[in-house]
UniProtKB/TrEMBL annotation:
Gene3D superfamilies (UniProt xref): Dihydrodipicolinate Reductase, domain 2, NAD(P)-binding Rossmann-like Domain
Record's protein name: Gfo/Idh/MocA family oxidoreductase
SUPFAM superfamilies in the cross-refs: Glyceraldehyde-3-phosphate dehydrogenase-like, C-terminal domain (SSF55347), NAD(P)-binding Rossmann-fold domains (SSF51735)
One protein family per Pfam: GFO_IDH_MocA
Domain Gfo/Idh/MocA-like oxidoreductase N-terminal: 3-104
Length: 324
């Protein structure tokens, strides 16, 4: 059976997903929603798909098995509600919004209208072989402390640099590390964050996001974690990862490698899988068969990651610890 997929968004990541879908057998891109019909039409030429101005226009005209939502954080809400109302499954890029309230509202609406709707969220690192290796080897109860980071440069996208549009770096980008922490070490119960704007607008025009920050997280197991981020580095310079310090040894994960150090023993595993491909396959399999067991992050689970990253912002703004 050929799956007919619609796409919302015409930017970088809409292109990444559209290319993956176009390269998959028995998948057809049915339509593209842009911020204007013309933008959708232009983006759609490569995939022989028509453009639309809104999800409702696309869904009125096309039979859709699912929709990929690839829009910036501030553009979420109405798109998801429209799809839920029509019972159309979706894969949505992280993060789910700029705050935690909107995703919770969407989740409540989903539970009411379409509780079994198939959803997937773009926390693609969960699909890496090395993350699966960590899941098998790490016992959350044996973790003492975890440290993570996302240290990079200031992205070019105008929306990314505006707090009200992106939610800031921790919500927009470092969310990947928070999500991995939850996936591998369990739920978070308290956060305390310190953020600052070290090099404000003189260096980056029209920017109001914090450019440095560090967040301490207390986990339900009793372990603690610290995750820091910055976007002050020069273009192309950066480092991101998550390390676990356990009674059995040290596990250091980056997107390319996993290094395991035990007494008199050291192993390094290069990441060889393409997690985006695995994420796509799991979602398409769920659409075809109804078997969602391969989807490693769904909307309800991603709401919990969003709750942690938004609590960190609230903590940074108020100077208080936030209990979840
Ligand atoms: N999982 C990953 O590895 C990964 C990587 C990159 C981006 N992303 C996520 O994907 C999302 C999009 O990022 P991007 O890099 O493609 O951004 P982008 O700026 O390249 O593109 C965003 C697109 O969304 C469109 N848009 C905005 N509001 C819209 C609306 N209401 N309806 C339709 N289109 C709308 C814009 O016109 C633009 O074409 C972000 O949330 C980002 O975090 C995820």
């Amino acid at each position: 059976m050929t799956l007919r997929i619609g796409i919302v968004g015409t930017g970088w990541f809409a292109g990444k997903h559209a290319d993956l879908l176009a390269a998959t057998e028995d998948v057809e891109i049915a339509g593209i929603v842009g911020s204007s019909k013309n933008k959708g039409d232009v983006f759609g030429i490569r995939y022989d798909a028509p453009g639309y101005e809104s999800v409702s226009d696309m869904a009125d005209e096309q039979v859709l098995d699912a929709v990929y939502i690839c829009v910036p954080p501030m553009a979420h809400g109405e798109i998801e509600r429209e799809l839920i109302g029509r019972g159309i499954p979706f894969l949505v890029e992280k993060p789910l919004g700029t705050d935690a309230e909107l995703p919770q509202d969407v989740l409540g609406f989903m539970r009411l209208k379409s509780p079994d709707l198939i959803t997937s969220v773009g926390y693609h690192f969960r699909y890496q072989d090395n993350v699966e290796r960590l899941r098998e080897a790490l016992h959350p109860g044996r973790i003492g402390i975890a440290t993570g980071m996302w240290m990079g440069d200031m992205p070019q996208a105008e929306w990314w640099r505006r707090q009200e549009k992106s939610g800031g770096q921790f919500i927009e980008q470092t969310t990947h590390i928070v999500d991995l922490l939850r996936h591998l070490a369990g739920e978070v119960e308290e956060v305390h964050a310190v953020y600052a704007s070290r090099f404000p607008e003189e260096e980056w025009e029209q920017t109001n996001v914090h450019d440095i920050g560090t967040v301490t997280l207390k986990l339900k197991t009793g372990a603690v974690a610290n995750i820091s981020n910055t976007c002050v580095l020069p273009p192309g310079v950066g480092k991101a990862g998550l390390s676990f310090y356990t009674r059995e040894g040290l596990w250091e994960w980056t997107s390319g490698h996993l290094k395991v150090t035990k007494v008199n023993e050291e192993s390094v595993f290069a990441e060889e899988s393409d997690p985006y491909e695995k994420q796509t396959k799991a979602f398409l399999h769920a659409l075809r068969t109804g078997d969602t067991s391969g989807i490693l992050s769904d909307y309800a689970d991603a709401c919990k990651t969003q709750e942690v990253t938004f609590a960190a912002l609230q903590s940074a703004l108020s100077g208080r610890s936030i209990k979840l």
